[in-house]
Design brief:
The complex is a heterodimer of chains A (466) and B (592).
Chain A (H helix, E strand, L loop, with lengths): L4 E3 L2 E5 L2 E4 L10 E5 L5 E10 L2 E6 L12 E4 L5 E4 L7 E3 L15 E4 L10 E2 L4 E3 L3 H4 L4 E2 L6 E3 L5 H11 L1 E2 L6 E10 L1 H14 L5 E7 L10 H15 L3 E7 L1 H14 L13 H9 L3 E3 L5 E9 L8 H9 L2 E4 L2 H5 L12 E2 L15 H25 L6 H18 L9 H12 L12 H7 L1 H9 L1
Parallel strand pairs in A: 9-17, 14-20, 14-21, 16-17, 16-18, 18-20
Antiparallel strand pairs in A: 1-7, 2-3, 3-6, 4-5, 4-7, 5-6, 8-10, 11-19, 12-13, 12-15, 19-20, 21-22
Helix pairs in contact in A: 2-3, 6-7, 9-10, 9-11, 10-11
Chain B lengths: L5 E8 L2 E5 L8 E5 L4 E9 L2 E6 L11 E8 L1 E4 L7 E2 L6 H8 L18 E5 L6 E2 L4 E6 L5 E5 L6 E4 L4 E3 L4 E6 L5 E5 L2 E4 L8 E3 L4 E2 L4 H6 L2 E2 L3 E5 L6 H11 L4 E7 L3 H10 L16 E6 L5 H20 L3 E7 L1 H14 L13 H9 L3 E4 L7 E10 L9 H9 L2 E2 L4 H5 L12 E2 L12 H31 L6 H18 L13 H23 L4 H5 L3 H7 L9 H22 L1
Parallel strand pairs in B: 8-23, 21-26, 21-27, 22-23, 22-24, 24-26
Antiparallel strand pairs in B: 1-2, 1-6, 2-5, 3-4, 3-6, 4-5, 7-17, 9-11, 9-14, 10-13, 11-12, 13-15, 15-16, 18-25, 19-20, 25-26, 27-28
Helix pairs in contact in B: 5-6, 7-8, 10-11, 10-12, 11-12, 12-15, 14-15
The chains are: A alpha/beta (466), B alpha+beta (592).
Bound molecules: adenosine-5'-triphosphate and magnesium ion.
The site of magnesium ion has 4 residues of chain B, from helix 3.
């Protein structure tokens, strides 16, 4: 067992980093407490050790720390979260300390917030459909338990409403199982965080929620630890207490900026737009903590939220996120302007795990063919819309006009819905058929004829009349 | 083996550790690092200091802790038991690790790549007294229902065989003794080892001369890859790289498939693990798992082991090639491998070249793809083996000017260019027909037993590609002056191109029948689409309105031809008759 040692040998401070010298037995990744001259305590983590020199990142920032009068205490352990079933219903800081008026947590155990990678062999493939009540998700980009499905948003777009709606409505059909919501706020406004928390209060879900809150005016470097605290709580709830956990991480762009700050302070070779070259690996150690595990009842479903700078999805944060997560829900500013809400940009949105979560016995046998067809028709309608804006509607062929009408109706009736409208998956599917009924069978190439005959309203009607 | 040199750690920075007192150790030797004994590899030597890339998380490790040299380079174990295995980047079996440590990966676990307890039945093919040299096959082990594993004399050993006997052996029991001319005796076992960073030797390299059939229409018919060839598949996120790689792993006509999940998602490996034991190889009817080896070093697993994973995969593949098999390697994604190199290089404080990648990036990529090929294997009996490599590339923002894409395009012969726009329209596989290419197209005609059919197929693909190129030009005209400006034949060309795209190139990986299309079926499908086109031109010349041609009911049959099972292929031929009948009716209505 390593003992705690104290040093007053801070040699330099630069940005969020601090160098301590003449240190014995410091270990990479371990944490330190820094006691300032006024007795206040800051927290730090070791980024590098070379001989007796230790580089420390200070979570609360280095403002006010001086070289002479600070004491650094090496705690000989990694960052940990104290857990017990009592964490449910509680609010913590971005560094995992209780922030509400509740009592301190009497820990059952302390868990390293970095966890360990899940052995890929130990994973259970996610295949249980989660009904969110939102057609553009359930119908076209279905979410399954254990999936990581981010929302790519932009400044001023209604991602907060959508995450609140998800937390309110998400259920697995026909099952009443223990669930929990873990919410990590990273650098978002008080108002945005409060909006979400209030919503949980209204539905009573607050009792089953754990919150880690780092607001816009809280220390930025702390954000590097916040999602890891949240996921440690989630893993405990899911894999030790058998709960189905929905984790919302909002906003990952702020998280990445904190990483960039550290990287710049370390004078590392910058990657694209100044983000460090290891951003992909770092994000993966966050996102890959979602999932299901063989032999465990619980699961972690993750919905990270990020704002795309300039609505650009090739920006490193959305780009690398998309490369790791299992799809993405993209919000569109043009749709938002057209008052389509939620403004889900259907075409570039994607759920990669949908295929094994839908179909007969899960949602309905026609689901896969139906969304394939809706996609194809909407894509063609969108092209026609674009052509019409360049050439004028008159230049469109009859075919194209029909597809354009379809696209308009699809956006207005299928994509758009009230934030309190909780559609069943059958309603969503039937709505899809309704919209497709304007086409002839020849045009519905992606759907099995048998399904058309069974589900298309016009055929069903003739059946009834006969 | 005696662990000799012991140094001590002076620096820890993420995945790189520096130790001093390391005089005498060699580059690429494996070392054990720190009190936890975690595994690392020497990647730089300076005086008595060695930089070590560490294959596991380094939290909790610090200066003063010991480093022990194992005096062997990073190697893989080769022998019966590879097939159906799933390994991490340094060949630790993930199934056994889970049994030992649970669902989360601990550190410092040592676990041999090949099971030491399992007995395999060895059937010799030579007798005592036979003179052997490296690569000679001394016997077989029926490893799975699909793979008769050839036991070969390891490199560096030759002489006369004694005490060879049929029987049941574990991989490290002696199945024969080989006595060299100078009298030294070497024990021959079912297992051998090979350092992953060196390619295995071959007698002679040959030019690839036949296609690796994948069952994917856009690939086989338009941009095929050969047995022993190399292909890359770059594209932005979510455009279908992994699905294509999985499709190939499922349906290629290779004897052995090595799938390397390099820095990608855990669930994608789980997907393979759950599907492959269920899915049947269309040729043998046996589960696909019986010919597969999986390497999974997912994005959240240590980055140095990710760097090693592609080498582990390719070395295992070469070993099977040496037995005379057709082997295919899928590496998803080579960009993550390159990024791992970059991460290590940065920690070593090497001088970065473009985008922070080390200057040796292009050389490493080229050397990796050079390990593909069609070869004459070393040893008797004479045999030919092939190794194809298909690498996914994940450029930032989908930008093809990325260093990894560029370095890869320099060496590979097939380029499948995935386009975001196609993926958003759910046109899958989203392989762009305008920008992709293959240098192996000449072999297409030889895929057919009937020479004539082969020639015809080659011509049809040229015609179809011509139509698709014409479509791109016509759509440009429509965008400028509207659809009105098009002649009836232009309109027909547009419709046929749409049909080629939607009814032929588009292929749903998740549809039971559509997921895989044999070469003869590809031929019939394309022929039918082009038949409609030819008949359409004749009709237009006879004065038939294009609108009437486009409304023909047979077009629905053409669109659904992809769902016709292999066994009912004559139904596709029948569609061509229906085309003729329905066109004939149009002619008569014009005539009257
Ligand atoms: N041939 C296909 N048939 C049907 N769907 C497909 C096909 N190819 C891709 N898709 C769809 O596209 C999704 C994304 O594909 P995939 O996971 O292969 O992308 P990727 O290029 O590997 O992305 P990343 O770089 O992020 O790993 C799949 O989950 C699937 O829904
Ligand atoms: Mg992929």
């Amino acid at each position: 067992m390593l003992s705690i040692k104290e040093y007053q040998t801070v040699s330099s401070i630069a940005g969020p980093l601090m160098m301590v010298e003449m240190v014995d037995e410091a270990k990479y990744g371990h944490i330190v407490d820094i006691e300032l001259a006024d007795g206040s305590i800051r927290h730090g983590q070791i980024l590098q050790v070379e001989n007796d020199k230790v580089l420390v990142q200070v979570f609360e920032g280095t403002r006010g720390i001086d070289v002479e009068n600070s004491t650094v205490r090496f705690l000989a352990k990694p960052l940990e979260l104290a857990v017990s079933p009592e964490i449910l219903g509680r609010v913590f800081s971005g560094l995992g300390e209780p922030k509400d008026d509740g009592p301190p947590i009497i820990p059952d155990k302390r868990l390293d917030i970095n966890s360990k990678p899940i052995n890929p062999y130990a994973r259970n493939y996610p295949n249980e459909f989660i009904q969110t009540g939102i057609s553009s998700i359930d119908g076209l980009n279905p979410l399954v338990r254990g999936q990581k499905l981010p929302i790519f948003s932009g400044a001023g777009l209604p991602h907060d409403q959508i995450t609140a709606q998800l937390a309110r409505q998400a259920t697995v059909l026909g099952k009443a199982e223990a669930f929990a919501v873990v919410f990590a706020a990273m650098g978002i406004t008080f108002e945005a965080a409060q909006f979400f928390i209030n919503d949980l209060h209204e539905t009573g879900a607050i009792e089953r929620a754990v919150m880690f809150v780092n607001l816009a005016n809280d220390p930025a470097i702390e954000r590097i630890a916040t999602p890891r605290f949240a996921l440690t709580a989630a893993e405990y709830l899911a894999f030790e207490l058998d709960m189905h956990v929905l984790v919302i991480l909002n906003d990952m762009t702020n998280y990445c900026e904190a990483l960039r700050e550290i990287s710049a302070a370390r004078k590392e070779v910058p990657g694209r737009r100044g983000y460090p070259g290891y951003l992909y690996t770092d994000l993966a150690t966050v996102y890959e903590r979602a999932g299901r595990i063989k032999g465990k009842k619980g699961s972690i479903t993750m919905v990270p939220v990020l704002t795309m700078p300039e609505d650009d999805k090739t920006h490193p944060v959305p780009d690398l996120t998309g490369y790791i997560t299992e799809g993405q829900i993209i919000l569109s500013r043009p749709l938002h302007r057209k008052a389509i809400s939620p403004p889900v940009d259907v075409l570039p949105s994607l759920s990669r795990l949908k295929d094994k979560g839908i179909g007969e016995g899960k949602t309905r046998e026609d689901h896969a063919d139906l969304y394939n067809q809706l996609y194809a028709a909407y894509a063609r309608g969108k092209e026609a819309q674009e052509l019409a804006t360049i050439m004028g509607e008159a230049a469109l062929s009859e075919e194209d006009k029909k597809y354009m009408t379809f696209a308009d109706k699809f956006e207005a009736e299928y994509v758009s819905q009230d934030y309190y409208d909780n559609r069943s998956v059958e309603q969503t599917l039937d709505l899809g058929w309704e919209l497709l009924s304007m086409f002839d069978n020849v045009e519905l190439k992606r759907i099995d004829i048998k399904l058309i005959e069974k589900y298309m309203p016009k055929f069903r009607k003739s059946e009834r009349e006969a | 083996m005696a662990d000799k040199k012991v140094g001590r750690i002076v620096k820890v920075a993420g995945p790189v550790v520096v130790a001093e007192g390391m005089t005498g150790v060699r580059m690429y030797d494996v070392v054990r690092v720190g009190n936890l004994n975690i595994i690392g590899e020497i990647v730089e030597l300076r005086g008595d200091k060695a930089s070590i890339q560490v294959y596991e998380e380094t939290t909790g490790i610090g200066p003063g802790e010991p480093v022990t040299d194992t005096q062997v380079p990073l190697s893989v174990e080769l022998g019966p038991g590879l097939i159906e295995s799933i390994y991490d980047g340094i060949q630790r079996p993930l199934d056994l690790l889970m049994e030992a440590e649970g669902a989360f990966m601990s550190r410092g676990s040592l676990m041999p790549g090949l099971n030491r307890e399992k007995k395999w039945h060895f059937q010799p093919v030579i007798t005592d007294g036979t003179k052997v040299s490296p690569g000679d096959i001394i016997g077989h082990v029926q490893e799975t229902t699909l793979i008769a594993h050839k036991i070969m004399v390891p490199f560096g050993i030759s002489g006369t065989v004694h005490k060879i006997a049929e029987g049941d052996y574990t991989v490290d029991e002696t199945v024969a003794v080989c006595k060299a001319e100078d009298g030294t005796e070497n024990q021959l076992k079912l297992m051998q080892q090979w350092p992953v960073r060196n390619s295995r030797e071959v007698k002679k390299r040959l030019t690839p001369n036949s296609l690796l059939i994948t069952g994917q229409r856009v690939i086989d018919s338009f941009f095929p890859v050969s047995k022993g060839g190399t292909a890359c598949i770059p594209g932005p996120f979510g455009t279908g790289k992994t699905v294509v790689q999985h499709q190939l792993a499922k349906w290629v006509d290779a004897d052995v498939v090595v799938y390397v999940g390099c820095g990608e998602r855990g669930n994608e490996m789980t997907d393979v693990l759950t599907e492959f034991p269920e899915l049947k190889d269309p040729r043998s009817g046996e589960p696909l798992m019986k010919r597969s080896v999986l390497i999974a070093n997912t994005s959240n697993m240590p980055v140095a082991a990710r760097e090693a994973s592609v080498y582990t995969g390719i070395t295992i593949a070469e070993y099977f090639r040496d037995m005379g098999f057709t082997v295919a390697v899928m590496a998803d994604s080579t960009s993550r491998w390159a990024e791992a190199m970059r991460e290590i290089s940065t920690r070593l404080e090497e001088m970065p070249a473009e985008e922070g990648y080390p200057a040796y990036l292009a050389a490493r990529i080229a050397a990796f793809y050079e390990r593909a090929g069609r070869v004459q294997c070393i040893g008797t009996p004479e045999r030919e083996g092939t190794l194809s490599i298909i690498g996914a590339v994940s450029p930032p923002g989908g930008d093809l000017s990325d260093s990894v894409v560029q370095a890869t395009l320099h060496v590979v012969k097939v380029f499948w260019s995935l386009e975001g726009r196609l993926a958003y329209q759910r046109h899958f596989p989203a392989i762009s027909w305008l920008t992709s290419y293959s240098f192996y197209k000449d072999s297409l005609k030889d895929c057919f037993e009937d020479k004539e059919q082969g020639m015809e197929m080659e011509k049809m693909t040229v015609d179809a590609m011509g139509l698709l190129e014409q479509e791109a030009e016509l759509l440009e005209i429509v965008r400028l002056v509207g659809a009105e400006a098009l002649s009836p034949t232009d309109r027909l060309a547009l419709e046929t191109s749409r049909s080629i795209r939607e009814d032929f190139l588009h292929q749903n990986a998740f549809h039971d029948i559509d997921t895989h299309t044999s070469m003869p079926k590809q031929y019939e499908m394309l022929k039918t689409i082009l038949h409609f086109h030819k008949q359409g031109i004749v009709a237009i010349e006879a004065g038939v309105e294009t609108a009437d041609i486009f409304k023909l009911a047979v077009r629905e049959d053409i669109a659904r031809a992809k769902y016709i099972p292999q066994a009912d292929m004559s139904k596709i031929v029948d569609i061509r008759k229906t085309i003729e009948e329905q066109m004939k009716k149009l002619h008569t209505s014009v005539a009257t």
